Amino acid sequence: MLASKRLGRKVDPYDLPLEDRETYALIRTGRNAGMFQLESPGQMHLSRRLGPRRFRDLVAQISLFRPGPVRGDLVTPYVLRRNGLKAYSVPLPELEEVLKPTYGVLVFQEQVLEVAHRVAGFTLAEGDRIRRAMTSDRGPGAMDRLRAKFVRQAVERGVPAETARQVFSWTEGFSVYGFSAAHGASFAELSYASAYMKRHFPASLMRPTSLAESFSRSRCRVVSWRGCPLIAGSANASSHPGSDAPPGRPSCPFPTRRVGGSSGWASGTAPPICRRPPRGGSGWSGRRFP
User: Fold this and answer.
1) Do residues 260 and 269 lie in contact, with contact meaning Cβ atoms separated by under 8 Å?
2) 246: exposed, middle or buried (C-beta count within 10 Å: 0-12, 13-18, 19+)?
């Protein structure tokens, strides 16, 4: 990869320091362009509100920003409790062990199954129906069939009817999609890796990103903000395979593959020029072409 080539040593994005403070500090700014799962406006806003400082915070953030927790109005309570702005509480003592790791808030599918078992005495087979309602049978109708049974069995176990309905309303939100913990953790690992690369190797991350996505004006601002000046397209510093950034300060060359079409070049013109720059001088530059 580009970072390994520039540094002369292997940089493995799947074997990074897991609690890098500078990486989390960058995520907390909300300037998350180029970060997997974190660059939507909603996730940028949540990054600033939640302020993740460790990996489990990132897993929760990825998992909270799903239709289930959002519909269940669980995001704000989690943020307030995580940051010590609201006292942690659970409606029933039976839920203390299940919900303590997530500050009394349902975040993962596994917690929903455990809540159904502890509050209403659901069997594994009945709990699996809730799981299917959260996944393959997504939709309010699937959960409606379980509500009456959940409340009835909870009341029979001594739970107040109003509390039973409140607890079920949490699980009901997951009928429009909630994450399992393993799913959230796998996404968070990729999010962290891309954030780490952006913090420590911004040019190496943003150059391939410029090829995969539209290189918009906002993308240019992101690159410049990370201290990687965006330089004019150059045959000697292009983003085509086999080329490398100019020596010295890391920079992000405007991808020459974007020149085709916009400047009247045929789509196959840029690659051979980048592979065989003229002898002497600094090579062809995008500024030299009409």
Assistant:
1) yes
2) middle
